[in-house]
């Protein structure tokens, strides 16, 4: 007989199954029936853990991004300050950006997902602000207001990521060149320093399955 799952284990099973469905069909395509089939449970059981489909989608996004950002923060703290800035601002983590872009498109119709997006967008800005402050403390950058600089650079990076990942208007080298140039100018970094320090893609690993 299979061991009975605890409430927390069942909830995590449902969230992971939701992420598999998201990877296949996008946030807009998620249904409780599909999630139940993926998890191997009756879809009605999902309502014991989540009020409905919108709450489930938001919780799955929150679950994955919370884990992703914790991993990213640990990774960045292990890099030199300029390399950490380059790694964070790079457009290369495709799984990360494709999921966020899909979530952005669904958020206007799903208030719970919109709230999760807003919360984690602010988390991303704080991580970048921390890395800017770290670079300033190391004498590698200048910034009178890391929070303000992080907001501006996040807006640029997100916009360029949409042009690269969703629209194909710019390739990855052009995308990085645009964002890196803006960051170097804003933070008083030597031109070309971010490209030279850019680590191999490692952050932004979307959690699924």
Automatic annotation (TrEMBL):
DNA-binding residues (ranges): 31-50
Q: Does the keyword Nucleotide-binding apply?
A: no
Q: Does the keyword Lyase apply?
A: no
Q: What domain of life is recorded for the organism? A: Bacteria
Q: Name one GO molecular function term.
A: transcription cis-regulatory region binding
User: Which keywords does the record carry?
Assistant: DNA-binding, Repressor, Transcription, Transcription regulation
Name under which the protein is recorded: Transcriptional regulator
The root-end lineage is: Bacteria, Bacillati, Actinomycetota, Actinomycetes, Micrococcales
